[in-house]
Design brief:
This is GerMN domain-containing protein. With 356 residues, the protein is an alpha/beta fold. It contains eight helices and 14 strands.
Length: 356
């Protein structure tokens, strides 16, 4: 049987979950502001223009950088189960944002004092990083210390760097280099590096259950982990068979199938849930389910984990901006805390924003 948490347990750790905002459904005004997050500022603009010299902004003194103005960034870390997990932190605002997030991925670096229990940084200690952005492709350059990681971490490091850098709107692809030399494969275990490395290459890849990889396609799904200290959402790229379903239906049905049985990932979408219909209009998806979507709750009430998994997973599709839910065609549906789901729910600006 798949792992299904009880709402009473989930309620005790609600502060650790991602905050999804949809017309005030999940919290106060601060959360509602995340409904339509602003574009992230340009990343290392002077480097993008081909200027390899440091700018005054990137040469700022420690005193100048010690500003109270901060911005939320997603750092992809490795948890104690070996999963690559987004963790949102407040970082000092800087014009060199891409280089900054890489520096925070270095073990023993500035992230050290804010690392949540059970998590670790992904880039080997003492590694020096630099970046260069041109036409949507960012080159992440590392010093020789980059090649001192454990072989079993290699794919995770590649995924963490890629997903951390591509959080910026003007970064589409990533190139990895060491001391200025572009790598075609990772330096320790020779994992190939695609020439157009991007989020499309996946994260926490799960190939279980797929017989014919050539007749399948990847989708990124969000399940969650719960332990004694916290709960948090984890993206998983899973290959699903090409059945002819549209992408929205394919994602929902993959969520219904659930996570790998051997993992510690959890889903509250029961396998007896059925998607009765899916309609996409102007970026909004309306999903119609049977009553099994209510799970163990009272009639017309849907778990926050069900809503969050659906919204996070579906908004990985470029054409989806928000998600609305009906049951047997009825809009009379509420969240587990009694708030109406009559308005579409949008993706938050960041994932896993609570204290771990």
């Amino acid at each position: 049987m798949r792992k299904i948490t009880k709402s009473a347990i989930a309620a005790t750790v609600v502060t650790s979950t991602v905050l999804l905002s949809g017309c005030g459904l999940f919290g106060g005004e601060e959360e509602v502001k995340q409904m339509d997050p602003p574009k992230n500022e340009a990343v290392d603009e002077t480097v993008a223009k081909g200027d390899n010299s440091e700018t005054e902004a990137t040469e700022a003194t420690d005193q100048e950088e010690a500003t109270t103005e901060t911005v939320k960034r997603d750092l992809y870390l490795i948890d104690n189960s070996g999963l690559v997990v987004p963790y949102t932190v407040d970082l000092p605002k800087t014009d060199a944002a891409a280089r900054q997030v890489l520096e925070y991925l270095v073990a023993g670096g500035p992230l050290n004092e804010m690392l949540p229990d059970g998590f670790r940084a992904v880039i080997p200690q003492d590694t020096v990083v630099d970046v260069k952005l041109e036409d949507g492709t960012i080159t992440a350059d590392f010093s020789k210390e980059f090649g001192t990681y454990n072989p079993e971490d290699e794919a995770k490091i590649l995924q963490a760097i890629t997903w951390t850098l591509t959080q910026f709107d003007n970064v589409n692809n990533v190139v990895i280099s060491v001391n200025g030399y572009k790598l075609d494969e990772m330096p320790v275990n020779s994992t190939p590096i695609p020439t157009d490395l991007s989020r499309a290459d996946g994260i926490n890849i799960d190939n279980s259950g797929v017989v014919d990889i050539t007749n399948s396609r990847p989708v990124t799904l969000y399940f969650y982990v719960q332990n004694e200290d916290a709960e948090y959402y984890v993206p998983v790229t899973k290959r699903i068979e090409n059945t002819g379903d549209d992408r929205v239906s394919a994602v929902v049905n993959a969520l219904i199938d659930g996570p790998n049985m051997s993992s510690n990932l959890i889903s509250e979408i029961h396998q007896d849930v059925k998607l009765l219909g899916a309609k996409v209009e102007d970026g909004n998806v309306t999903l119609d389910f049977n009553e099994a979507i209510f799970g163990s709750f009272n009639e017309k009430m849907i778990s926050k984990h069900v809503i969050n998994s659906l919204v996070l997973s579906l908004t990985e599709q470029p054409e989806v901006k928000s998600v609305a839910i009906t049951v047997n065609g009825s809009e009379d549906v509420v969240t587990e805390d009694g708030k109406s789901l009559t308005e579409p729910v949008t993706r938050p600006a960041n994932v896993n924003t609570g204290s771990f």
